[in-house]
Amino acid sequence: EALSPQRINGVTLERERVLELAKKLSGLSTTQRARIVGLDSGRAPVIVAGTWAVYHILEYLGFKRFTISMYDLLEGTLLELLEGEEDG
What we know:
- Helix 2 (about 15-25) packs antiparallel against helix 4.
- The longest helix is centred in the middle third of the chain and has 15 residues, at about 45-60.
- Strands 1-2 form a two-stranded antiparallel ribbon.
- It is mainly alpha-helical.
- The chain has 5 helices and 2 strands, in the order αβαααβα.
């Protein structure tokens, strides 16, 4: 079952939870990771490195948590512009 963007967008993850996930994913084979519900099987080979990268970036920057966004920079810029027009 795929996770919908609505369920993911806006979720906040603690840095320590990211560490837990990185350790758990590191202990699984690529085949096992590919079977995780909600994880695109094509990401199974790279999810470990990506999770560790997120953890170390959070640690380096001193962030205790982060919020997941399903939007990219262009969408964010557009939303800011639209909000600015509403404030007029």
